[in-house]
Design brief:
Elements (H helix, E strand, L loop, with lengths): L6 H27 L7 H8 L6 H35 L12 H15 L16 H24 L3 H25 L2 H11 L8 H20 L1 H8 L2 H6 L4 H23 L5 H13 L4 H23 L10 H19 L8
Helix pairs in contact: 1-3, 1-13, 2-3, 3-8, 3-11, 3-12, 3-13, 4-5, 4-6, 4-7, 5-6, 5-11, 8-11, 12-13, 12-14, 13-14
């Protein structure tokens, strides 16, 4: 059984977490200084106390860059931990946070809004595709409808592999429906949907962030509480049951927690690729552990730091242009994972 690390290793892991926190803090402050306008670090700190020399810089920092940085850290950590949980639950290194069709359900909700042009008077402005409250709620509703179907299937299907296939097939059906709506939709609506599918981390207001943050923080706490069941599942379902684990209950809680993490991020930021699939592997390879009591905080910190770094690259510092975050995460992230695998080809994932 995988247990809490012995006291002799506690100092080692404290150093690991301290280093990861320092890296996250460094990338965080880097993201606050870089952008289309470079703001000195001293002015960033002064902005926190409403004491900046340049009022425009203060507005940029407090109203745009701080919400974006917090959104990015939370989204990166949420996607990373949800990917870890799915890979362990299904014992599949290619599993990710959207493997159960959560992303497809969110996409269907957004597609219904965009392609059918639903508006609520002047309150909803669909020109701001990623940030409309209507799109947020439509995406969340689509995600949780799929969650309901997957949970219903989980009570009928005993095997995790069979449940994985059900999730993949349901996601394929939903994607097919969206494709049909694409075919009969207007060009401007297709463009609007494509823009949403690129993902966006820089447009959340403080009001939206205050709604997203509690949901993700509660899910993070749930992830820590699920560490022991996940450790038992690593050793096989039969062993987990013989050790006293209530398999069906644990599987249901893991699916709900993962769906809350990935569904919330998709609702507010759109689908974001790579992070959920790759960061758990990076955590295992760099620190050579399969213990979820350690991996959970590791991948949360790594996911937040990496997505922050990718967002800085996507912003093209010094330029007014911005690249799609999904393109950057895959373009820079995939070669990095390949390089790690080639260097550490003997890593045991214990699946």
């Amino acid at each position: 059984m995988i247990e809490t690390p012995p006291a002799s290793d506690s100092k080692k892991w404290k150093k690991v977490f301290l280093i990861l926190l320092l890296i996250l803090a460094f990338v965080l402050f880097l993201s606050l200084t870089l952008g289309s306008v470079r703001i000195p670090l001293g002015e960033v700190f002064s902005s926190f106390f409403r004491n900046a020399e340049n009022e425009i810089w203060e507005t940029i920092v407090l109203d745009f860059r701080v919400p974006k940085a917090l959104t990015t850290m939370l989204a990166g950590g949420a996607l990373a931990i949800s990917g870890l949980q799915m890979q362990t639950l299904f014992r599949n290194p290619l599993a990710g946070p959207f493997i159960l069709g959560i992303s497809s359900g969110a996409g269907l909700g957004v597609a219904l809004v965009i392609f059918f042009g639903i508006r609520l008077g002047g309150f909803i402005e669909l020109s701001s595709i990623g940030r409309s409250w209507l799109l947020v709620f439509a995406s969340a509703l689509g995600s949780f409808v799929v969650l309901g179907v997957v949970l219903a299937a989980s009570f009928k299907v005993r095997s995790s592999v069979s449940l994985l296939i059900v999730g993949l097939m349901f996601g394929a059906v939903v994607s097919a429906v969206v494709s049909i709506m694409h075919y009969f939709s207007k060009a401007e609506n297709i463009q609007a949907y494509v823009i949403w599918s690129f993902g966006s981390l820089g447009g959340l207001s403080w009001a939206e962030l205050s709604m997203m943050t509690p949901l993700l923080l509660c899910s993070f706490i749930g992830s820590f509480l699920l560490s022991k069941p996940l450790n038992l599942m690593l050793l096989g379902e039969d062993y987990a049951v013989s050790s006293g684990l209530k398999l069906q209950q644990s599987r249901t809680l893991i699916i709900i927690n993962t769906s809350l993490l990935s569904g919330t991020v998709t609702a507010f930021c759109g689908p974001i690729a790579f992070i959920g699939l790759a960061v758990p592997h990076i955590g295992r390879m760099l620190f050579n552990t399969a213990n979820h009591l350690l991996l959970t905080p590791i991948v949360i910190l790594l996911g937040g730091a990496l997505l922050l770094l990718f967002e800085i690259i996507a912003q093209l510092p010094g330029s007014e242009s911005t690249l799609p975050i999904n393109a950057i995460t895959s373009l820079f992230g995939a070669p990095f994972v390949i390089w790690l695998i080639l260097r550490k080809s003997n890593i045991n994932y214990r699946f």
